[in-house]
Amino acid sequence: MAPDPLKPEQLPTVCGEIVAEYSAEVVKLGDLLFELLSEALGLRSNYLKDLDCGRGIQMVCHYYPACPQPELTLGATKHADNDFITVLLQDHIGGLQVLHQGKWIDVPPLPEALVINIGDFLQLISNDKVLANSRGPRVSVACLFGTYLFPNPRKYGPIEELLSAENPAKYRETTTAEYVCCGNDKGLDGSSTLLQFKL
Length: 199
Known about the structure:
Pfam family, one: 2OG-FeII_Oxy
Domain Fe2OG dioxygenase: 55-148
Family: Belongs to the iron/ascorbate-dependent oxidoreductase family.
CATH architecture: Sandwich
Structural class: alpha+beta
GO molecular function, one term: metal ion binding
Keywords: Iron, Metal-binding, Oxidoreductase
Number of helices: 4
Largest sheet: 4 strands, antiparallel
């Protein structure tokens, strides 16, 4: 949906207009989130935006019909998002879980709230200062901020202003395309692609 958003007529008639409108609003939200994250890291407010962290957005919409035998089904394999951040809109059914101290914990949906997930790539460039970690039909819409869907030769590595003798770089530089290719080659095996980029 960014940097070159689809036109409503390129999308299914039932949702084209609302998807285009929602995407434009998520872009604005992403700009604000990257400003806040930059400031929280002690950087100037446009730092992450100037790194193109919010330039590309992929929207993934899921519809999970009600299942008559849910005990026989599996959800998505545990995974980390290979992006900077993910903005998740989930319906009232829920279904999102996070792994915390070896246990899966439900993330209850809150009316009119979005879930913001930190992606592996933000963990990489922050040098670990920012860490990533049914009853009826369910709908979720994930907007993944990353630059891997369009040619981007920029190499990303730990931000120099966050490094010191006490806090040396923990990851090697990489492009978002290389990072995602490594993740795709590895598959959803429950381990983080970040491990392949550790120094």
